[in-house]
Amino acid sequence: MAISILFGSAIAHAQEVISLPVANDAINLSSVSQRYESANPSLQIEVLSADAKQREQLSVSALSQRTPYRWLAFTLANPTDETIKPLIVVPKRGFVGTGLIWPLIGGQTVLSITASSGAEPERVLGRPGVFRLSVEPQRVVTYVVEINGNWPPRLGLWNERAYKFHLENRSLYRGFLLGLIGLIALYLTILFFVSRQVAYLSGALLSIAGTLLLLLEFGFFSQEYFSSPSTAVKLRSATEALMALGVFSFFHTFLLLRHRMPILGYLNIFLIFSMATLVPYAFFQPYYAAGLARISFGGGVFFGAIIILYLSLHRNPRALAILPAWMVLVGWTLFVGSAIVGWITHPLLSPGIAAGLILTLLLLAFVVTQFAVGMRMTKDSSGRDALALAGAGNSVWDYNLEQKSFYVSPEIEKLLGLRPGHFELGGTHTWLDLMHKDDRVNFSNRLDAMISNGMGFLNVSFRMRGTDGGYRWLQLKARAVPGESNIASRCIGVVTDITHTKLAEERLLRDAVHDHLTGLPNQTLFTDRLERAVNRHSEQSPHEIGLILVDIDRISSINDSLGHAAGDNFLLITARRIAEEMSPRDTVAKISKNRFAILTTTQIGIDEVYQIAENIQNSISQPIPFRPKKIYLTSYIGLALYKSGTGEEAAEFLKRAEIAMYSAKRRGGTNISVFDPRMARRTTNRVALESDLHQAIERNEFKLMYQPIVHLSSGQIAGFEALVRWQHQTRGLLGPGEFMDIAEETGLIVDIGRFVLNEAGIQLGSWQRLYTNHEMLFMSVNVSTRQIIQPDMIGDLQAILDRSEITPGTLKIEVTETQVMENPELASRVLQSIRKFGAGLSLDDFGTGYSSLSYLQSFPFDTIKIDKSFVHSEEKHPFSDIILKSVVALAHDLGMAVVAEGVEEVAEAEMLNELGCEFVQGFLYGEPMIARDAQKLLGHRPVSAGDNEPDTVYSRLSRMQLERHTLQSDYEIGSTTAGVTQTPQETTQYQPEDAQYD
C-alpha cells in the first residue's frame, strides 16, 4: 500500500473498511491500513461518520519526538446488534527494524490510538502492546495509530478468545526454548567449576547473556514490570553489551589467543575490558551503549572468524574444532543484522532469531564439551613425562653421535616457524646455521669439549633465528653419555625458551639508565654523558658544549585536576617535541619529574644555543588537544656554555645551568635565561636571606607601615593599608619584593601574616579608641593563600577582633582574584566565615586576574580595589577609562565600596571623583609611613568655620613635612630615611609593586 507523504496538514483519505467480526481469528492490519508519513506533527484525514452517512475530518497530533512522524489508519464497521471488542496486538520491537546506531531498543511501538468516535482504546493490563477496542452496534469507527520509529512488520487485529489460545501455544514454545538455553548456561557454568578452565566461564557468560536476551525478546522483562520505563531499556542495552563481552571473551580464552598471537591477544584484552566497561555504561547512556554493543558484537564475530580461519589453515586443533560452530554464529549475526537494519521483515523473524541463537549456543557448548573430554583423556594418557617437560616450558634436544642423528622437539621448530622435522633432516649443520653468529663459536667450542671429555654438563644460552628474521633466546642444558674411548656417544638434554627472561633483563638494564615514561636517558645516564663530553673537550676543539635545562610548569596542577595519566601524557608529548628540535648527535634527557636537559655542541656559541632554546620553548607552548579543550604548557629555560681551559667539572657546569633556569623561573612567565656570574651571587644571597628569615620573627625584625586611604569627596582619612617591612640587621629596611617569595616557598608566610594581622588589629583598635571621631576608620591587611587555608585562620582572626575591640567591619582582609580562583569552593567557605565573625573583605587588584562577574557575586566582598594599571596615566590602556567606569558602576550596584590604587596626579583624582569612586590611595595622598606619622595625620583637629581652607589630607601632609625637619625617622634604608619624601618620584623604597606583600 502506498505511503502518503504529507508536508502540511493536508487532508488524506482512509480507504478500506473492515467488517466485524472478521472471518479469521486474526488479520494483519499493517497490510490493509493506510500509511501516513509526515514531517509535520499534525495529521488530518477524511473519515466516515459513525452512522456512515457522511464524511468527517479527523485531526491527530503526534506524541513522538522524532521525525518523520508515522501513522496507520484503518476503519472498522460493526453491522451487528452487539458491541464487538476486538484486540489490537502490537509485536514487541526486539531486533527487527530498530537500527544499528542509536537503536530504538525498548520503548513503545505504538504511542497512541485515536478513535474517530466512541470509546477510546484501552491498554490491556499485564499485556504490553495489547489494546482493546470497542465498536458499538451499527457503527463505523476509524482508528489512527501513531507509530514510534520504523513501521512494524505486523499489527494484528484479534478475536480475544483466539488470542488467548495463541498465547498458550506460544508460551509452550517459548518455555521450551528458554529451558533449553538455560540448561546450556547451567551446564557450562558447572563445567567451569569442575575443570577450572576460563574458556568454559566465557561460554557460560555468553549463554547467560543469550538467556537474558531471549527473556527480553519474549516479553518477560517488559516495561510494566519496572517502576520506570527506562529501566527496561537500560536492561536491554546492558544485555546486548554482555553479549558482545561474551563473544570477545569466548574466542580469546578458547583459542588461547594471547599465547598464540600475542599482539592480537593484547588488543583483544583491551577490547574485552572495553566491553566490560560498556555494561555498566549502558545504565547511563542506554541507546548509545546499545549501538556500540551491536557494532562491537558484529565486529567481534567477524574478527574472531578471521582469526579462527587463519589458525585453522595452520592446523590449530582448537580453531578446527570451533570453526563450524563459529560459521553458524557468523550466519546468525548476518541474519540478525539484516533484521536490525530492516532488510528483512517477516512475522516469523523473532522466533527465527531465538531459534538461531539457541542452535549457535548448542554447537559452542558441544565444542567446549568435546574439548573438555579431550583434555581429560590427555591428562590420563601415558605421556606424563612429555607433558611435564612441556608444562615446564622445556623441549627435548638429542644429538646421537653413533647414529649420526639429531632431534629437537617440534615445539622448538614451531617456535622458530619451521616445519616439523626440519632439524632432524638437516642435522647439526642446520642448527648451527640458524644460530646467531656471535654465539656460534662459543656453543661449538663448549659442545666439542663435552664430547671430547665423554662426560660433563653443558649449560649455554644462545640466539636462534626464526623464519620471520627475529631472534629467540634459548637455553640448552645437556649431559654427555660416555661411549667407547672415553668419547661421548650421545648428548641429550632440554631446550628452554628464555626470550622473555632475556628481554626482561635488557629492560631492567635499560630502565636503570632511561626514563620509564619517555624512554629518554635519565639523570644517571645524562650525568655520565655530560662528564664524558667535558673530559674529552680540548682547547683545540672548534666546538663548544651548550647545556639547556627546561622546567615544565603546571604539571603538578594538571596531575591534581586531570589525573596523573593526563600529566604523563603531556610529558610524553613534550619529550617528543623537544627531541624533534634536536639533531641526532645531541642528547635529550629527562632528569626529574618535570625537567629535561639537552646537551648540544655549537660552533657559533651562545646565540646558536639560545636559538635552539627558543625553538624548544615555542614547540612546548603549542596547544595540546584534550577532551575537547586545549591545554597550554609553559616552560622556564636556563642556558650555560662550557668553554675550554677553565678546568670546570661537569657538576659545576650543570649547576650553572640550574642557576640560570631558576632565574628564569623567578622572573615568571615563559622566560629563557643565560647564565651570568651575578646570578650565582644572587643565589648565594638568597640562601643567606632565607637563613636570616627564619630568625626574623623571633628577633621582632618585621615592622608595619601604613599608607593612607582617603575619602575622595571629603578629603579626610578613611583608613590605612598595613604594609610589612623587614628591618634586616645588615641590609637595612627591605621591601616585601625582596623576601616574600622566599617566605612563600618556606611556609614562613603564615607566621609573618599572623604577625601583620595581629599588629594591624592592635593599631586600629588603639586609633579608634583614641580618636572617637574616627570610629569607622578601617585598616586593610593583605593575606596570603597559605594563610587563608590554615585551619586556625578563623580562630586567630576572632581572637584579634575580640582583643582589639575593633568596630565590626573595619578590619578588612584583602585577597586577590588569583588567590580566590585557586580553590573557589574552599575560598568561599573561608570568606563567609571571616565575614560572619565581623571582619570586612576587600578584593584586591581587581581587573588583573580572572575578573569573573559570576564569581564576584558569589563571594561576600564589601570592597573592590581597582589596580593602578587602570588609573595611572603612564600605565593605562586606551580602554581603561571605559573599564574603570563600568567597574565602579558594577560595584555600586552590588553594594560594594571602591578603592582606586596608584593615584599620583590631581587629574586622576578628579576623574575618579567624577566617576563616583569613594576612596583613593596613592603617592598623591601619602606614601607608606610609620605609625607615629600616620597618627599625626589622624590627630589634627578640623579647622574652624572661619578658616579659608578646610583641613584636608593635603594640608596635614604639608604641616607634617615641615615638622619632619626636626624629627629623625624611625627606619633607614642604607643612608636614606624611611619617612615620607618630598615627592613620589624621589622615593625608591616604596614603589607600587612593593606596596603589597602577596
Structural class by sheet pairing and helices:
alpha/beta
What distance separates the N and C termini? 80 Å
Tally of contiguous helical segments:
31
**How many beta-strand segments?**
37
Average pLDDT: 76
The helicity comes to 40-55%
What is the 3D form? flat
Q: Give the radius of gyration.
A: 44 Å
For this entry, what is the oligomeric state of its chains? single chain
Query: Spans with pLDDT under 50 lasting ≥5 residues?
Result: 1-14, 377-386, 941-954, 958-998
The order of strands across the largest sheet is 27-28-30-31-32-33-34-35
| Approximate strand percentage | 15-25%
Task: Explain what you see.
By secondary structure, the chain is of the alpha/beta class. It contains 31 helices and 37 strands. The protein has an 8-stranded mixed barrel with strand order 27-28-30-31-32-33-34-35, surrounded by 4 helices. Strands 1, 3, 5, 8, 10 and 13 form a 6-stranded mixed sheet that branches. A 5-stranded antiparallel sheet has the order 4-14-9-12-11. Strand 25, helix 19 and strand 26 (671-674) form a beta-alpha-beta unit. Helix 8 (317-340) runs antiparallel to helix 9 (349-379) and helix 16 packs antiparallel against helix 17. It is flat and about 110 Å long. Residues 1-14, 377-386, 941-954 and 958-998 have low confidence and may be disordered.
